[in-house]
Amino acid sequence: APVVVKKICCIGAGYVGGPTCAVIPNIQVTIVDLNKARIDAWNSDNLPIYEPGLDEVVKEARGRNLFFSTDVDKAIEEADLIFVSVNTPTKKSGIGAGFAADLNYLQLATRRIAEVSTSSKIVVEKSTVPCRTADAMRTILEANSKPGCTFDILSNPEFLAEGTAIADLFNPDRVLIGSLQTESGLSACGSLAAVYSNWVKKDQILTVGLWSSELSKLAANAMLAQRISSVNALSAICEATGANIDEVAYAVGKDTRVGPKFLKASVGFGGSCFQKDILNLVYLSESLHLPHVAKYWRAVVEMNEYQKDRFAHKVVETLFNTITGKKIAMLGWAFKKDTGDTRESPAISIANHFLSEKARITIYDPQVGEDQIWLDLTDYGAIPAEPIKPNVSIQKSAEDACKGAEAIVVCTEWDEFKTLDWEKIYANCPRPAFVFDGRLMLDRKKLQKIGFTVVTIGTGDRV
Ligand code: UDX
Ligand code: UDX
Ligand code: ADP
C-alpha cells in the first residue's frame, strides 16, 4: 500500500512553491529557501509575492500546518515527500545558452536531498524541467544516498497561472502525476495522489508515465503561447485590413473545437514560463535531431518578438516618426494584471525601444516597485543606469504618469485603467493626445469622444 504522507518539505519559496504548498490542508508542510530575506517575508505580514487571495490562505495556515524556514536540511530530513520547486531559468552561457534550462539549482537541491536524508523519500519535481530530467535526478540521488534509503521520483508539474494562482490551486483543471511504471513508482504516485485527494476530485488526478508528465508541461505552455502568437499574427492582418481582432477571435472561439479562452490579442506574452519553456522545447527538439520541429516552435517566440517590436514601432510612426525628447506614459509594467511579477514582461522591451529612440518615459504600475523597474531596465545591472536615468521617471499613480504625456501606452491590463478620470487626463495632455491600447481593454469610443486619438492592437480604423 502507498506510504501515507505525514510531512512535506518544499524546496524553493517562490511563485510556485509558496502558493502551491499554502493550499495543502491537514498535512504539515515546511517550505524552505536559501534566501533568508524571502523566508522572513513569508513569515511577515508583507508576503514576498502579490497574488490575490494568497494573504488570507497563508494567514490561515501559517503556524498551524504551514511553516517557512531557512533550515533546508532539517526540513528534508523530517519529510516523507519533498517538492523541488527551485528556479530553472534559461541558461545565460555555455552549451545551449539562450535556450536550454539551467539545471544547476535543481541539481544542487537534489544533491542536498541525497546527502541529508537518513530515510526513504518521495522526491517530486515541480519546477518545469526538460524531458528526462528525472533520470538525472535519480542517478544523483542513488549515487549519493545512504544505505537503506531509497528515492522515488515523481513529476508533478504545476499549471497555475499568476494572478489566479489561488483559484487555480483550489480548483485545478487537472493534477498531473508522472511516475515510473514500477511497483514502487506506482506506489509513490498513489501517495502523492492521496495528498491531492484532500481537495481535488479523483477523476481530475491524472497519472501517467514520468516522461509524458515532463513533456506535457512543456507542451501545455507551448500550445497556450502558440494560441497567443496565432491571434497576434492575425491582429497584424486586422490592422492592415480594417478587420477587428476581438470580433475575429470571438467568431473563431465559438467553434467548440477551438474554444473561447486565451484568444486575447496583446502587446505580446510575457511571464517566466512561455518563452522559457518553448525555447526549452526548441533545444530538446534540436538535441533529438528534429530540426523541423524546432523550427516550428521557434516561430511562436519569433512572432512574439515581432508583436512587441511592431507595437513599439507603431507608437513611433504614429507620433510622426520621432519620439526623441517626447514624454511617453507607460501604464503597467507587470507581465499581466493581478501580479507584481515582471519576468519577460513586454513592457520592458517596449520601454527599451522608447529609450533607444531617446524618449522620456514615465512608468506606473500598481504592484511593481521602483527598485524592480530599475532592475528590469538595467537587466539586473548588466546595463548602466546613469545614461537612461534622466529619461525615466516612475510615478505613484496613473494620473501622475500621464501628466503632460504626448502618448499614453497601456502595456498591462490592470482593471483600474478602465476607470481612470480620462477627461482630467486629457485636460493635462498636449494636443494631439494619443492613447495606445496594447491590451484592447479601454473604451475606445469614449476616449475618442473625449478627444484622444486611440490606436488599438488589432483594429484597422484609426480615428
Ligand atoms: C502560464 C500558464 O497559463 C500556466 O498554466 C503555467 O503554469 C505557467 O505559465 P502565467 O505565465 O502565470 O501562466 O500567465 P498566463 O495567464 O498564461 O499569461 C501569460 C502571458 O500571456 C501574459 O503576458 C498574458 O498577458 C499573455 N496573454 C494571455 C495574452 O496576451 N493573451 C491571452 O489571451 C492570454
Ligand atoms: C474543415 C473544417 O473542420 C470545417 O469547419 C471547414 O468548414 C472545412 O474544413 P474538413 O476538411 O471536412 O473540415 O474536415 P476536418 O474534420 O476538419 O478534418 C480535416 C483534416 O484534419 C482531416 O484530414 C483530418 O483527418 C485531420 N485531423 C482532424 C487530424 O489529423 N487530427 C484532428 O484532431 C482533427
Ligand atoms: P518559480 O517561479 O519557479 O517559483 P522563483 O525564482 O520564484 O521560481 O523561486 C525559486 C526559489 O528557489 C528561489 O527563492 C530560490 O532562492 C530557491 N532556491 C534555489 N535553489 C535552492 C536550493 N538549493 N535550496 C533552497 N532553495 C533554493
TrEMBL record:
It comes from Dioszegia hungarica. Residues 329-444 form the UDP-glucose/GDP-mannose dehydrogenase C-terminal domain. The active site is at 273 (nucleophile). GO terms for biological process: glycosaminoglycan biosynthetic process. Signal peptide: none annotated. GO terms for cellular component: nucleus. Belongs to the UDP-glucose/GDP-mannose dehydrogenase family. This is UDP-glucose 6-dehydrogenase. GO terms for molecular function: NAD binding; UDP-glucose 6-dehydrogenase activity. The keyword Oxidoreductase applies.
